[in-house]
């Protein structure tokens, strides 16, 4: 059984959020050293993107679940209109002329995901008005094939018919994923 950390949103900057995740793992292991080798991380949306950015560099985390993760393929994320944080960045870039990709390239969850060498379950959505699906799938596609597993959702950040049943099935898959040794 894995001890699972979950995150919805921490901190102010992406780098600071990654550091917060590493600090959370350090704190968990300091308080409960008996769980060493059994730490897993589960993140949704923002937390999924942070997990994809942080976990490749932290060998203390042995399993990872990313649910509609953001920050994947930053240049594409900035090209697709959305109602999420990517849209704010697009508008900032358009208004001020600042070339934000020069900075955001360092915070690309798909680039970081290439370095994952642990079991990863990604739940990516076919439709998502907040986190563009191409970025979600870019994160999954970057994971080395023996390590990545995909669960396709009809939609993310959006209510739809059959959502409860689909999420119930996903929860069963996630539970099984975290029960494996």
Quick description:
Helix 1 (14-31) crosses helix 2. The chain has 181 residues and is an alpha/beta fold.
Features:
5 strands; alpha/beta; Rossmann fold; 181 residues
Shape: globular
Q: Supply the CATH architecture.
A: 3-Layer(aba) Sandwich
Instruction: Please give the alpha-carbon distance between the first and last residues.
Output: 6 Å
For the record, the CATH class is: Alpha Beta
CATH topology: Rossmann fold
- Say which CATH homologous superfamily is assigned: Alpha/Beta hydrolase fold, catalytic domain
Mean pLDDT: 92
Strands of the widest sheet, in order across it, are 1-2-3-4-5
Computed Rg = 16 Å
Largest sheet, in brief, is: 5 strands, parallel
Determine the number of helices (DSSP H or I, runs of at least 4 residues): 8
Name the helicity range: 40-55%
The amount of beta strand, in percent, is 15-25%
* Number of E-type strands: 5
Which structural class do you get from the secondary structure elements? alpha/beta
Task: Name the poorly predicted regions.
Answer: 7-12
Give the count of structural domains.
1
């Amino acid at each position: 059984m894995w001890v699972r950390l979950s995150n919805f949103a921490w901190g102010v900057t992406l780098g600071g959020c990654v550091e917060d995740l590493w600090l959370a793992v350090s704190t968990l292991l300091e308080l409960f050293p008996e769980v060493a080798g059994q730490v897993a991380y589960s993140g949704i949306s923002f937390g999924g993107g942070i997990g994809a950015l942080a976990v490749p560099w932290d060998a203390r985390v042995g399993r990872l679940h990313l649910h509609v993760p953001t920050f994947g393929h930053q240049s594409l994320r900035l090209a697709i209109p959305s109602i999420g944080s990517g849209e704010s960045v697009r508008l900032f870039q358009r208004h001020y002329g600042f070339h934000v990709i020069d900075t955001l390239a360092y915070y690309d969850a798909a680039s970081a995901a290439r370095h994952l060498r642990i079991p990863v379950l990604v739940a990516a959505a076919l439709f998502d008005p907040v986190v563009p699906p191409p970025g979600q799938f870019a994160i999954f596609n970057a994971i080395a094939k023996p390590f990545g597993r995909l669960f396709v959702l009809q939609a993310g950040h959006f209510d739809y018919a059959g959502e409860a049943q689909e999420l119930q099935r996903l929860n069963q898959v996630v539970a099984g994923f975290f029960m494996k040794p």
